[in-house]
Amino acid sequence: MSTLTRRVARQAQSLKIITNSKPKEPYRCLSSSVRHADQQQKQQPTQPQDGSRTTHFGFETVAESLKESRVASVFSSVASSYDTMNDLMSLGVHRLWKDQFVRGLNPGTAPSPSSAQKGWNILDIAFRMLDHASTVNSDPYTRVTVADINPEMLAEGRKRGAVTPYGRERLRFVEANAEKLHMIEDESIDLYTVAFGIRNFTNKDVALREAFRVLKPGGVFACLEFSKVNNALFNEAYKRWSFGAIPLIGQIVAGDRASYQYLVESIEKFPSQTEFRDMIQDAGFLVPGKGWEDLTGGIAAIHKGVKPAR
Ligand SMILES: C[S@@+](CC[C@H](N)C(=O)[O-])C[C@H]1O[C@@H](n2cnc3c(N)ncnc32)[C@H](O)[C@@H]1O
Fold it and tell me: Which of 86, 206, 234, 293 is the most buried (most CB within 10 A)?
């Protein structure tokens, strides 16, 4: 049993959740009612009446045109407590996952000997990438563009960026929808990373094709995202933790239960490792090996794709 499994099990115990039987009724966790994955079929989807295209917003079915604004209000609401909540919800493990993600990409090594510009051009995961490039690879050139659709999340990022040694030359923030990166030129990016973002996008396939467009031939798409747990027993404990504790922590710490309920539901709706690997291939990427690396038994996974060199 891994340390995390033990910690999750301990937390579940302390919340008086029984982890080895599946209740037929909705779980009660302290004073709060909890919606579980297997209840999603029973919900009344808010289907649009005009026959327009629909998508998921957590377990709800909503018109595609509404998802962006619903996601925007979640992140506007969680922006100020985002880091604290991540630490509480993942028991700090999200930092280890991000470290492993960046280490595996090793930014700051020369992307290609023929590269006209020095350093890499990276989209997203700003600070760890720049820290790694600078301290591990002694590379003072790599630049990161943080693209996010949400002004409040960008404002938090800018605030944190202001106390790093990286000036505007190396760290830039743009408000942009990952599905329409018009301000980013074709084949201008060495590394496109997205961490815990893509499951919130309305059209993931469109965003993947946009990533393909902006990457240079030989450039890498890398995604860190929640995924599917491989072990049934661990999955049971994990589901009880995420559906039982996370919305409750959101309610107590951030005063916002609904946003954290959406976050756990959006994790549940995200494709499996193989499905997402296939989507990356469908966008045109070559996938190394099996295409992903599981983290903490599949709670999260790192997927990679390489844009074929011409
Ligand atoms: C869970 S946060 C992840 C933030 C950061 N990458 C991290 O790892 O901590 C997800 C982010 O995706 C952004 N997002 C959601 N939909 C988006 C879209 N269509 N285009 C760009 N960003 C989007 C949200 O605004 C939010 O800041």
Answer: 234
Between the alpha carbon of residue 95 and those of residues 86, 128, 222, the distances in Å are 9, 10, 17
Q: How far apart are the first and last CA of the chain?
A: 46
Pick from 56, 89, 149, 193 the residue to mutate for probing ligand 1's pocket: most ligand atoms within 8 Å of its CB: 149
Higher-pLDDT residue of 9, 224: 224
Extract the annotated binding site for S-adenosyl-L-methionine: 148, 177-178
pLDDT at 107: 87
CA 165 from chain centre, in angstroms, equals: 26
Ligand 1 centroid from CA 148, angstroms: 6
> What are the structural domain ranges in the chain?
97-226+267-306
Tokens of 98: 């991000």
Q: Which residues line ligand 1 (CB under 6 A)?
A: 71, 75, 148-150, 153, 177-179, 195-197, 200-201
Q: What is the number of the ligand 1 atom nearest to the C-alpha of 79? A: 27
Kindly report the CATH number that applies to the domain delimited by 97-226+267-306.
3.40.50.150
* CA pair distance 130, 80, nearest whole angstrom: 23
Whether 169 has a pLDDT exceeding 70, the answer reads yes
d(CA 140, CA 121) in angstroms, rounded, equals 12
Three-state SS for 220? strand
Please tell me the pTM assigned to this model.
Answer: 0.82
Q: Distance between CA 12 and CA 19 in Å, rounded?
A: 7
The length of the chain is: 310
Query: 250 near 256, Cβ under 8 Å?
Result: yes
